[in-house]
Amino acid sequence: MAAPAPELMDDVVEEILLRLPLDDPSCAARASAVCKHWSHLLADAGFLRRYRAFHRRRAPPRLGFIYDAGSPLARFAPTTAFRPADLDHDGWKPMDCRHGRALFRTSASAVLCAVSGCDHGGCHGGPFAVAFVANYVMEGEEEEITSPTSAWLYSSETGTWSAPSTVRHHNAEPFPKPSVLAGDGAVYFLTWHGRNILRYDLRKLDLTVIASPEIDDDDFENHLLMTTEDGGMGLARLVSGHSLQLWSWKPVSAAAAWVQLRVIDLDLVIPGDAMRPRLLGFAEGTDMVFVDTTYDGAQVVQQIELSTLKVTKVLDECYASCVLPYMSFFLPGRQKGKLPPSAITLIFTLTDDVVEEILLRLPPDDPSCSARASAVCKPWRRLLSDPVFLRRHRAFHRRRAPPLLGFIHHVSDEPARRVPSFAQFVPTTAFRPAELEHKNCWPLDCRHGRALFQSSNVELTIWDPMTGDVRRQREPYGTLCTFATAAVLCAVPGCDHHDCHGGPFVLVFVGNDEDDDGEEIASASSYSSETGTWTAASTVHHDDSLELESKPSVLAGDAVHFLTYFGKAILRYDLTKLELSVILPPVAYGDGDALLMTAEDGELGLALFDGEASIHLWARVAGAGWVRRNVIDLYAVLPFFDPVHSLSLVGFAEGTDIIFLHTIHGDYRMELKPLQISKLWEKDRCFNIFPYMSFFVPGRDRNKLPSPTIIASI
């Protein structure tokens, strides 16, 4: 038995966690739930700096959008796995979203982090400031276009508003579109008709007015504040519905002036027949603007990267007047020493019944899901390995046989001479064993969670792909056999063989040669891992050749069955009596092919390809001999079938009604009931397929997780 895996060093853990995806907070949440050490590391400021540098992110990832859905109704539209506690805020109008916070109001306002020296990658729970701008008529004054506009700053630390800073200017009424925080320590707000921009200095608490570049009155809705590459204040403007002008406000001597950076023709950028677009939002720290277009009456929000002019649809059927990107890193316990109030904190307070109902729905054909769930906490791990829960899990998914996790097949330049090159594992799910290839090995069998290989030095290798265990055993007859094959079986009494890992096993070895009189003779022995010995050989003579096929054996009843070349005989080894006998096939298949399988009642079955256009399915029934159960017309299921080119029967999944076919067009999986066929892969030289089938049970045999590669997809 292999030694337990050593604990990971801090450096190794850090390298693993550095590779968690930025735009999926659920990954960091799951990792922080594994243990306190991981949670502390994920919240460490030094690690977070490395994390962002590793992913080369200047700005936090975008997790979703907040937009005005009318009525008024503020709605959060997630673009990742992140979900806030509330997706809708009825009666609220979104005004700003910055530094991990969203702000709602009916007038122009901005929210900002107030932590000194903060990089604003994960601002949650600390002090903040709100800049509020409003235009109003003083009591006793007549309403006029020069009514004053004032700005205030609120501090969450003092709980007070600053004294107002007021300007009188025509067309200075704030327009409810996103504000911009520029690198000069000021917040900028757009005014109605886009003729002016309000600048509020956060240090001096001073409000001033900046005149916009000359505009057309018809384009007053198509203005958007943004930041430029150097962090300054910029302006995006749509002219004539298709020309996007980008401006930068730059100081010249003691004054300031507008500089036009570029003009983009949106007709060449936005695909399709879209109606007149509108500018809805901008993602600070990036070069992304958001526009809406209308296709067939439906409003669609699209993202435009200004540096590359790449266009991506981000929201479908979204009727919004503005879009505010929510951008933040996930930081477990950054502010309060605990996880945020999300679903990840509820996993420890859920009742056992609720947890069991959740875990019952984990897909059986993806071991990584069970591996991730078992890493959350010890109660979940114990539940996932409980035999009663496992029976419920299989019954819930109506699984008679373990799920198919992959295939083992051989790759050789000289298959006719049985010269092994290497055996290869081909995954069909997220499961990956520690080793995908085994050099200088020939696959013989795969059953009950184990794979069996034969090497050129007359040695058998038993491999458990789930745990990574490898056992080696010498063949019983050395080099005396001209042709030989073997089978592997679980030896645990009463086992249902759904998750056989680490227990005792049995090998059955069968070889054939000629005796002293030149007659064909076959011999069989069984090996027990509990006793470590081979049984005495059981032999049988036959008039025809007993040269053994390299095709998969079949366990039917209390016997293992092996096929000989040209289908002249089937060798049956009784596991109880330890006796070898010969069974004759129902018919000779001539130029066709044959494959052993099990029938519906668990008895021995045989699939025969007649070399023309049909596969005949036979079952060996007690007291009646061979009975033909079905005939499959290959022209009906394989439209490309050509009898000129050979078809081979290369594998069978025990406990199912699935057989595998090899053609010149590739390898196929055929379900017999109902009759369905699907392509596995494109290959022109695949000779035998050994399905690997097993459930994943955390810590079933060793009280530890299996091979680390199973956890690789966490």
UniProtKB/TrEMBL annotation:
InterPro entries: F-box-like_dom_sf, F-box_dom. Residues 8-51, 350-393 form the F-box domain. This is F-box domain-containing protein. Gene3D superfamilies: 1.20.1280.50. It comes from Oryza rufipogon (Brownbeard rice). The lineage of its organism: Eukaryota, Viridiplantae, Streptophyta, Embryophyta, Tracheophyta. It holds the Pfam family F-box. It comes from the Eukaryota.
